[in-house]
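Lecture notes, continued. The same structure-token format from the folding unit now serves as the input rather than the output. Read the line below as a description of shape only.
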């Protein structure tokens, strides 16, 4: 199956890149590569992680790549300008997430910085930075959850805390600048 290169996204140090391509069957995908400057190599080497995908449109491939390539997700999270990629805008916050009541929300913006101090994993894959944070509580639970969410308020990862104050501290540990930007939900 042949591939037509659509666009190349580069890391800041120019030692990693992602090639977005279209297959002759009309599907889109991407391939992450890193540059090896080892003696006798000096070439691009495919990253053998789970980075190739089959997407119906280029737009879907672009969204997929930011969730599966950590360095690219970090660039988007830090609001760096990247050709063809924009940071998603969140939808209005719901009153419940994963059947838990939403108590506080925090939409991450330029005033917040992903610290990289905590890596969340799902199915052995590192999750990229969140778009929004929510502190929630299930009706039958005395504890509180800090949910890291995407732009649709779908949970990417969570941590459990015995108080809202602890959840706020964890959020600050993961995203500096969040302590004073929480919005309480009635």
């Amino acid at each position: 199956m042949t591939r037509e290169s659509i666009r190349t996204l580069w890391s800041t140090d120019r030692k990693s890149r992602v090639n977005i391509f279209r297959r002759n069957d009309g599907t889109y995908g991407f391939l992450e590569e890193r540059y090896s400057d080892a003696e006798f190599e000096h070439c691009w080497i495919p990253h053998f992680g789970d980075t190739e995908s089959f997407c119906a449109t280029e737009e879907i491939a672009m969204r997929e790549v930011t969730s599966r390539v950590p360095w690219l997700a970090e660039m988007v999270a830090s609001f760096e300008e990247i050709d063809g990629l924009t940071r998603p805008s969140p939808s209005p916050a719901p009153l419940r997430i994963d059947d838990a009541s939403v108590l506080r929300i925090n939409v991450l913006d330029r005033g917040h910085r992903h610290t990289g101090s905590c890596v969340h994993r799902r199915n052995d894959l590192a999750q990229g930075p969140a778009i929004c944070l929510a502190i929630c509580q299930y009706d039958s639970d005395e504890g509180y959850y800090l949910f890291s969410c995407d732009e649709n308020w779908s949970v990417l990862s969570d941590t459990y805390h015995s108080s809202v104050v602890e959840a706020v501290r964890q959020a600050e540990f993961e995203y500096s600048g969040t302590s004073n930007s929480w919005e309480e939900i009635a």
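Point for the exam: The mean pLDDT is 86.
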